[in-house]
Amino acid sequence: MALLPAAGAAALATPFAAQPCGLRRAYAPPAAALRLGPLFWPWEKVKIGPLSVSPMGFGTWAWGNQLLWGYQESMDNELQDCFNLALRNGINLFDTADSYGTGRLNGQSERLLGKFILEFEGTIKSPDDVIIATKFAAYPWRLTSGQFVSACKSSLERLQLDRLGIGQLHWSTANYAPLQERALWDGLVEMYEKGLVSAVGVSNYGPKQLLKIHSYLASKGVPLSSAQVQFSLLSMGEDQMELKTVCDSLGIRLISYSPLGLGMLTGKYDASNLPKGPRSVLFRQILPGLESLLSCLRRTAEKKGKTMSQVAINWCICKGTIPIPGVKTVRHVEENLGALGWRLSSAEIAELESAAMAAPKKMVQNVFQTA
């Protein structure tokens, strides 16, 4: 007995990357179709609090950052193409921050997203069609909840939006300015109560601090919907896995940033071919110990007819997280879309994780991440 209509079976047999990326979607399985497995297509949505988002989003750290990512304003047209292509193919979650950008370009990522939404050559029927998750920096001069709410309003102006999808604390101050932390939490409460955000989240919180803010927000009647942390085959230590367990127990969606380890898991770099800029220092330290993991990624990719990047991103999805790989070019968007619509087997996941745990060096964790 066929489990899917013929058209559905044919589409499931076709790698997503081989389907036309310029179309809104190549195929939408009937809602009543029986599933062969938990495949994740871009238009199949998962929940972040009250929001329905694509199983993968895109990060926009590079949009305005000259120091680390070499941004130039001449890139803006292609970035618009990146946004358009992603949106046409079902991706509706875009992550940014009010600190993204360098020098005079601070906030540039938000400004570009606002411009791209307005100039999108397609139909945006409701605010849910494009969900912006932005992070507010815990700058030392943001000492009151009112200042944090003002930061949210400034982001809305740059984005040209009336309401954010997710308003997030960029990092916790618990390690160095614990008295500031409560004001930031109250700022989240206030922006939620004022209707400036549909959901609230945190970034770079460890499991212990996550439990504290979840409890505090709950006492104010505000649900904590998401927790964003560095999470990849290079960042799967005890804290990350404990955080994932806490998120699952509390109904908080984990958003995994740097799912490709800043590019180390793409297979594009080695000791004789390092990226330009500050990343080269980190790569020089870590890459020499990744031969086994990269070989495992390469074998799995060849077996699946995928790229190493697609396998690394799919691993994050299989772990129940929403990865937000960064994109700078249309090619990046096309490749990352190929991480969707299929799933690693449990044996492949175990093999990748075994190789990752055997690596002598892991990704350096964010200095702001708390316990």
From TrEMBL:
GO CC aspect terms: cytoplasm
Domain of life: Eukaryota
Keyword vocabulary terms for this entry: NADP, Oxidoreductase
Key word NADP present: yes
GO molecular function: oxidoreductase activity
One Pfam family this sequence matches: Aldo_ket_red
Keyword Nucleotide-binding found: no
InterPro entries: Aldo-Keto_reductase, NAD(P)_OxRdtase_dom_sf, NADP_OxRdtase_dom
All copies of domain NADP-dependent oxidoreductase, residue ranges: 55-355
Protein name: NADP-dependent oxidoreductase domain-containing protein
Species name: Miscanthus lutarioriparius
Lineage: Eukaryota, Viridiplantae, Streptophyta, Embryophyta, Tracheophyta
